[in-house]
Amino acid sequence: MASPALTPHLLPLHHRKPAEKSFRTRVVKSSSSVQQVEKTPSDGRAELLRSWESIPLPPLQAAKRVVLVRHGQSTWNAEGRIQGSSDISVLTSKGESQAETSRQMLLDDSFDVCFSSPLIRSKRTAEIIWGSRNEEIITEPELREIDLYSFQGLLKNEGKERFGAAYRKWQIDAKNFNIDGHYPVRELWTRARSSWKKILTHEGRSILVVAHNAVNQALVATAIGLGTEYFRILLQSNCGVSVLDFTPNPEGGSPEICLNRLNQTPGSPVASGSSGGRKASMRIILVCQGFSPNDVESSNPFTRNGQMNMLGIIQAQKTAELLLDVNVGTIVSSNAIASVDTADTICKIQEAADCLADDCIARYVEVKRIPELDVDNILNQTKKDLRLASGWLKEYEEEVMMALWDRAGVAWKYLLQELSKEEAGENVVVAVGSPAMHIAMMGHCLNLTKEWLGSFHLDAGSISVIDFPDGPGGRGAIRCINYTAHLGRWSIPITRSTADEEDF
Hints:
Blueprint: E1 24-30, E2 33-40, H1 46-51, E3 64-70, H2 75-79, H3 93-105, E4 113-116, H4 120-130, E5 137-139, H5 156-163, H6 165-172, H7 184-200, E6 206-211, H8 213-224, E7 241-247, E8 256-264, E9 274-275, E10 278-279, E11 282-288, H9 310-322, E12 330-333, H10 337-353, E13 366-369, H11 376-379, H12 398-419, E14 427-433, H13 435-445, E15 463-467, E16 477-483
């Protein structure tokens, strides 16, 4: 966990072709509740707008943090069976080990209550993570996994053979997938909204929820106001940890919500694997530059263009070590000193990794500095005294946010162009820059608008991973956001004890 002497507590974490026509909308966004006041959509974002629904959540008197964990590997996971809400499979020995790793990850964190799905694989994971805590684990039926009816229990190849077109629909258009007269993903989103009301009305301020892949995706999406088209976009690995911060709305009503992190896994988030069941050989890794002096004291977070302090140097080195699990093709960075130094550290370790023998030739990694990633001149225009807290980006003036959003759009297109240079085989592009720029670029990846800038959080030294199983022209699947476990003792704690009047 983090050392108080070194690490301040920092909190608030598919590409489509750019539209050619204009888009004009006035949106009122309050946490997970988005109301369309007036809209004249004239491009591909119309589908997103139709999916927004008002999701009223209970008003809060104090800040709450909810930590979501997916269960460990089950026997049916290992066999490749479709589980759904069936309750036959149990944790494998690997699943038990994953749950223990998550327990260690959360060992020093403070929780008031634990909610669990009633299914065996989830309940056992909750018991391992909860450990010797005295508080009761609350079983909540609506946290069960997605109901897949006739699909449940089938091997995936059996599903293809027996259901043909229906199985294909499940793979490529899950939100409209129908089986046995049901729309499973739509039903799941309804259950997720209902679950939030039960979770948030509990008196606890720090809440652990242990459930499943699909339901945890739905919980994250419905909290921040995303519809069923985001199924399989916000990934959940076995025992992956996701964190949401709920802050009281000063005007009453639904709280403000920020995704502090997504899918912090027991294993490496950049190791080879699939995204939503599909192999992904192309990815963009967003690396937040190492910590600089006075980042916390600054009234404008992460805009001091100074060299990294000792903590920042450690963060850069730890990130470079983590990225040894992949062969990085290109590294791009902003011109900020901390970004350049972080990028150089990653490059040096990448080039030396495969060349430990005397007669070996070092692998070349291209490093580029691009002004499109620079944000200091934009963020320094603010006249506000800001602090590092949940959803801090939303506090900027409208013109500052618009300038950040526009520049991020240009930077995101540049990264996709870099990714497209290798159409065959693996291609990994690493972008090093400010948390503010990375948050805005993730918004563009998800086809959102600048109103969502306050819905995500990133810490210095963190990484976020976006896979492209269909190439740079397809939808990006978010493997993780604000991953910091690689920082070890210098990582940001997920929760901590708080005084009655203190925010998380």
